[in-house]
Write a structure and sequence with these properties.
Elements lengths: L4 H55 L5 H15 L2 E6 L4 E5 L9 H15 L5 E5 L9 E10 L2 E11 H52 L14 H49 L8 H29 L7 E5 H11 L1 H7 L2 E5 L6 E5 H18 L5 E9 L2 E8 L33 H11 L4 E6 L3 E10 L2
Parallel strand pairs: 7-9
Antiparallel strand pairs: 1-2, 1-5, 3-4, 4-5, 6-8, 8-12, 9-10, 10-12, 11-12
Length: 474
């Protein structure tokens, strides 16, 4: 049990409850005992003062000896006190003791109460607790006061009360305290058990989900209603499960696409080489087919290069050297590099670039790759005799670059996936359009590494427009 979180919480709460009850019980008992002793001292002091007054009345002739004796006996019995009236020579004169003691010697008083006599002779009332080493052979609380007549101390009044009587009363109170503490402890343990079970039940759900996740089952959703840290953990777990499920689907799609992209050119190369070797291809046509093999091998090399670049970008190992780049001049250079492809398709080019130099903060080589991939894509999908438009605009501290081509619109349901690896609007994966299917994914990741974004708009009237942002340099 102690090895589980539930057992540890139960043990901790039980220890806290027991320690708290023990400390509070000790403190309460001490407070009650002190209060009881204070009350007893006040009662006994009042009794001693009353006896002193009675002795003075007797000395003045207002009371007879028998009256004095009866009243003192009544007080001793009422409060269960032992009352001694001691002469100035420390001899017992009148004693009322419930235990039956009728006399006390000067030696006994000097042995056990000599320190009190010194204070009494100063006119002070003295209170003292003596242990078992006294004339009663049991712990006793004693209150003594001097008897003064005509300014002279003529005797002393001692009022004694055995502490065991107080202890018996206190023990009865302690039993009530212990009973209350026991009930509180039992109730606390039950509530702790219920609370711990309730609190840890969601953890059991999370643990079960983690085991399913470890087995590769990502189609799970934890139902935890609590809004505390455990509820937040469950929400995070669900989010991780969704991400892993999406990642797994992406991974399977990637493997399928990579396999297809690699298998097709390899199959083509293998078939052509085999045909050349077994004489199926006439010798005078071998040169033509070797050019086809060379093209397929170049496409394979480009695919592998793009995949390596994408892997580096996604792993954060793509070196970035941010500098001030004249975006207008860079767009012109990239357009010039596509001059032959633009002319081959008879495209009309519109360049709406801001006058003067507009500088952005970017890695020159990576930004060139972004522009190259987007323009190549725009030229590839533009119709013969179509249009290619490039523009840049300043929006506050950002520069927006837009590349538009005329032609068929991208279906709305395909736009959210346009930057995914190997995603093709043509689900047949035909070779009608050249490319690796990774270019736009590289574009998005390069811009993400710059802290920028890209989006696509497409309709039949205006064509397709790729727009991305760059940080404007000061």
């Amino acid at each position: 049990m102690i090895k589980t979180i539930f057992g540890k919480i139960m043990l901790l709460f039980m220890a806290i409850i027991m320690i708290a009850l023990l400390l509070s019980g000790l403190m309460m008992s001490q407070v009650v005992r002190n209060a009881y002793l204070d009350d007893s001292k006040q009662q006994m002091t009042a009794t001693a003062d009353d006896v002193e007054n009675l002795v003075n009345l007797y000395a003045n002739g207002a009371l007879s000896y028998y009256q004095l004796n009866d009243q003192i006996a009544a007080k001793a019995k009422a409060n269960n006190n032992a009352i001694w009236i001691i002469n100035s020579d420390l001899a017992g004169w009148l004693m009322k003791d419930p235990s039956g003691r009728t006399s006390v010697t000067q030696k006994e008083i000097q042995t056990y109460y000599d320190d009190m006599i010194a204070e009494l002779n100063k006119g002070n009332t003295v209170r003292k607790i003596t242990e078992a080493n006294n004339v009663f052979n049991t712990p006793v609380l004693t209150v003594a006061t001097p008897v003064v007549s005509d300014g002279q101390i003529v005797g002393y009044v001692f009022v004694h009360k055995q502490i065991y009587e107080m202890e018996q009363s206190l023990m009865a109170m302690y039993r009530q305290i212990v009973l209350a503490a026991g009930i509180s402890a039992a109730l606390g343990i039950v509530l702790t058990y219920i609370f711990s079970k309730s609190m840890l039940r969601p953890l059991s759900v999370v643990t079960l989900g983690a085991r399913q996740l470890a087995k590769g089952d990502f189609d799970i959703h934890l139902r935890v209603s609590s809004k505390d840290e455990i509820g937040q953990l469950a929400d995070t777990f669900n989010s991780v499960a969704r991400d892993l499920k999406k990642y797994e689907a992406s991974r399977e799609s990637l493997i399928a696409n990579v396999s297809h992209e690699l298998r097709s050119p390899l199959t083509s190369i293998q078939g052509l080489v085999q045909a050349a070797l077994d004489g199926t291809i006439p010798k005078d046509e071998i040169g033509h087919y070797l050019e086809v093999v060379l093209g397929e091998s170049k496409r394979l090399n480009l695919l592998i290069t793009d995949m390596l670049d994408l892997a580096k970008i996604e792993s954060g190992q793509f070196p970035m050297q941010v500098e001030h780049v004249d975006i207008g001049e860079l767009i012109r250079r990239v357009l010039v590099s596509f001059e032959s492809k633009i002319n081959a398709k008879g495209l009309g080019v519109e360049a709406d670039l801001k006058d003067g130099k507009v500088y952005v903060l970017a890695d020159m080589n990576r930004l060139t790759q972004v522009l190259h991939n987007i323009m190549e894509n725009a030229i590839k999908f533009a119709p013969e005799g179509g249009r290619l438009r490039v523009s840049n605009e300043v929006h506050g501290d950002s520069v927006w670059v837009s590349i538009n081509n005329s032609g068929d619109a991208i279906p709305e349901e395909d736009i959210p996936y346009i930057f995914d690896r190997f995603y093709k609007i043509d689900k047949s994966h035909t070779r009608e359009k050249e490319g690796t299917g990774i270019g736009l994914s590289i574009v998005k990741n390069i811009l993400k590494a710059h802290g920028q974004k890209i989006w696509v708009t497409s309709n039949a009237q205006d064509g397709t427009t790729f727009t991305f942002t760059l940080k404007k340099a000061d």
